[in-house]
Protein 1
Amino acid sequence: MTFTLILVVYDPYERFTHPRALPAAIESIFTLEGSVEVVVINNTDLARSPRTSAYLRTLPIAYPRIRLIELDHNYGCGGGFNRGIRALNSLGDILVYMSCDAFIVDPKILLKMTAVFEARKKIGALHPLSVYEDSDDANVSSEWSSQAFLKALEVTDEDPERLPADPEEAIASILWEIGREKPGTLRSPLSQLPLTFYAVRKDLFLSLNGFNEEFIAGWENIDLALRMYKKGYQSAVMKDAFVFHRRLLFRILGQAGQNQQLLINDVRDGEAVWNRLWGGVPHADVFRDLRHGKLLHRCLLRPGRLLTQSLKRQWQQIWCK
């Protein structure tokens, strides 16, 4: 199988050229084994981020395998990816969305993905295990949850660049652990996958018209996963592959002073779009409706789950006393 890997770069505050972020991510791409075309999308207003844009323009010279596509402003995660796809004359069998704060530590990811995609035709999208993801299904453990990241960030006075260097010993330990997993072991079906290193079948992605570009910051991955599931394709996390997620981007945007409100507005707008498209139903319940049938889920499974959760909370309160 061939892969088209698209790195969507959004750097409105000229901070992603820090050596621990974008340059390191790009260098790590070239450790990947397998047939892969690399495309970098500048999803930032060129006038607003001249330093980042100038850096990106050096990439095709430093790395002749890279193709650079420059857009005129931020189209969001999904919009930037979609425009990159449309600008290419040819595409690989599998499309990969790689975040610019991801770091490749498992060079065999693409080979492992190939084995799964070839063996299981109804797997539409894959993601390796990761760290600091909002989706707990994708984290290697609760020790590496998004909540754990926020606690670590508190020590740095909310400055991501003051976080400790990449934990090489911890990464090596994680790689050793996942190396013991049976090849091709998955967590599936899932209602969403992160966009840190998201691989999707090209034909399926195009048949769904790609990401919904009404979503600017969030929700686009969930919406796509559910539309994919409606067509009979599953999203899955690979238990024998790993990518390290630095999670710098939204921490940087979140502390960006007056521009922080722009991010908050994008998220709220995304929630409004979600509610319009999916009837205001939480995405986990949409997924359960699709899996079990709306009648069975709403009338039996959901009330039973809520009762169990209520009893568990009551027991915890009694136990704590």
Note: The chain has twelve helices and ten strands.
Protein 2
Amino acid sequence: MNWERIEGSWDVFKSRVRQKWRRLSDQDLDAIAGRRDRLEDKIHERYGFTKEHIRQQVDDWSRWQTSERAPARTLFILARRGSTRFASEHEN
């Protein structure tokens, strides 16, 4: 997995992080600033999971975000929310 891709596009990915780990605040996400070590530390603070469990969760999440299936999943979520503007831009 290419974590640099997530870090470089943090403004896009932080909303996805928030969907996965809802206890993270906007301030937490700003402080994380795309850094994986900071993300893992904040998850540990908010949830109390073991470091190994967190590392595995972040690995799984990041693989999903950078896989070929992620864009289709995003379109599906947006369509369910009624975001016709985004869906119509990506129809063809």
Note: The CA atoms of residues 43 and 54 lie 7 Å apart.
Protein 3
Amino acid sequence: MYDTTDMYYYKAQSPSINFIEAIPQYLTHVSNEGESEFGEYINGYINTLSVSVTKNRIKITGSLCKFYLGDNFKSLTKGDTKRAIEKISDYLHLPINDAHVTRLDIAQNLIMKLPVDDYYKYLGEVQYYKRLEQSNGLYYNNQLRQMVFYGKEYEQRVKKQHIPELYKYRNVLRFELRFLKRLSEQFKLPEITANLLYDEVFYSELVKRWKNEYLAIQKINSSLTSINPTSSTKVLIENMALLALLEIGQPKVLSTVKEWQNMGLINKKQAADHRKKIKLLSNIPINENGNELITELNKKIKETARCW
């Protein structure tokens, strides 16, 4: 479940320890002694985690899953998370369960029937995020969070990294939800500490957030084998417009409307009306079966959340 985390342990939590003198001896590949805005610093590693040490703080960054399980194809359970934090504490000889968490990524790998790129065009807009398709996946960004869909098996092959037998030559879609900053505000808690990561209530809330953020994405119809019969010319025209919209892609049409507005060809209200109509068209039911790819993805997401 957990992937990348940023954790900070501060001098005030262990005032008797000189971080610069005590901590580097526990690190490997120690380098970059120098000065920064935080004073003298030393960088190193514990296993796969990056550790930066200054006089007043220790920053620990990296994938908890890779650190504890060896790769992030596996799913880090609540119990694994507790043991991972304990292992970091043993390495550094500090109670890292008290460390402050400032970034938190949760993710899962889903084995799909078709190539992962085939699913992106049916994932539309979502409130409070900006949708961005890139060569390495589909991104949804806002100032606090990020949702990412990408091909995990393909990424590992490109990086020439190990791929477990279960996932070799499979269509592995990874969905990540990244809480990038202001975590206490996002979770409505005074602070987020490492021991919360294996707390039953907090863990369950994270799983729910992972599922619900995905479900909030507008799903675009694609089953075009039949159009529901209608005696209404207006409805028929709307259905035909939907077919064109699906062929072009909702994101591209919305992008074109935005370009028209930026060029002054339409005003703000007209652009808003266009966007509203485009999104309404995308929700028109085509047939009973709906979008098979989205049905498959919805099922995988819900099953994963239920079993986590």
Note: Residues 221-290 form one domain.
Protein 4
Amino acid sequence: MALPGELSRDKTDRLRPPAPDQAAGEEVAHPVPVARPGPRQRAARLAKRVARRVLGERGVDRLRGYLQVDEVLRMGSESLRRTAELEQQVASMQRSALEAELVKAEAHAASINLELLKGEVRSVIQALEDLGMAIAPAAGLAGAGARLSELRERVNGLDRRLRSLQAQVVDTRSVAPSGSATLPPGGAEPGTGRVAAVPPAAVPSSALFDYVGFERRFRGDPEAIAAALAERYLDLLVANPPVVDIGCGRAELVELLARRGIEAIGVDTDPSMVAEARDRGLDVRQVDGGSFLREREPGSLGAIIATHLVEHLEFADLVELLDLAATRLRPGGVFIAETPNPTSLVVLGNSYILDPTHLRPLHPSLLTFLCEGAGFRDIRLRFHAPATDYHLPMIDEPDAPPWTKRVNEAFTKLNSVLFGPQEYALIATAAPAPEGPGEPQGGAPVHRSNGATGEEHP
């Protein structure tokens, strides 16, 4: 039996059922393909049909109710979980609040302790201030250290003076029967072989005035002064031995030279200073500078230094000291004199008039003139320690008007005149030996200095 032939498309379309929304007898010009449901949709439809057949419509409604109850239970469980979380957060906040209260209480206790400590500190500060005022009535606690140093220095000075007096008592007890005293070592008298007596120390104008303590308070720390002198003059003195320090005081410079192996002699009239220096093993003589130089051979010294001495001398004694120094130095020897600088008015109005033992200020030009008259050559001036704390400030502005230049120049002059260097040193060289009969002595040209400006010029 033969199979029928293949049906055409129009015949197959007639066999398809019409669409629900298509009117009867109406042909679809362009049929729209219908999307096939997915596996989940087909499974859901199948489950619904089975539920309807097994449970009926009422069973389906009950099942929906059961599903709603389960949703309610799930929501309740979620609410319980959220409530537990909120309770935990509340408990954490309560703990934080409790900790904050504890911290607040501790802070309050700490503030109370702090106030108590402040009271104790104020009490200690007041006690220290009272102690400072008791030690240094004019300066208080800030000056207590300096005052204690001064007291220590005075005690040491009194001890040195006591030892010196004891030594003098021993010397007076060792008088020979003929009435001639056994003299301390100070050099043999020419032609006799006997030991020359050391001239007695100058009698102070008032036995109640403690110059050692005065100098310690108002001149400054001795160690700092010694360091400054060493920085300024030590190398020059080392190059010109032997050295004599006239008015050596505590002989710090002599000690520094001795440590370098340089022959150095100190000269001073204060017995306590001399005793202290001798206790340190230094060669220090109790004699005035003029007397010491008169006993030295001409041309026997390499350097003579006198720091803050010449302003204490009478004018005739100063001229004699310069003449002796010029002759006792060997040719090319060095003479150094450091003294307050009167061209700086802050010196005259402050440190110079403060010292009652100062006789007269020495202008740099005057001291230069005196040294020239004594025969010194190559005289130079060095100025030290300007009073910079008092200096008027300069106008340093990029956009400043032109007239500020004149103001700065005026300020510079005022600073130089009012608050210039507080000390100056004259450094001179002894004249060289004559080269031959009738020939002039050679040497470097003499330098004079304008003391007001500190400028050197030939």
Note: The chain has two domains: 41-135, 214-457.
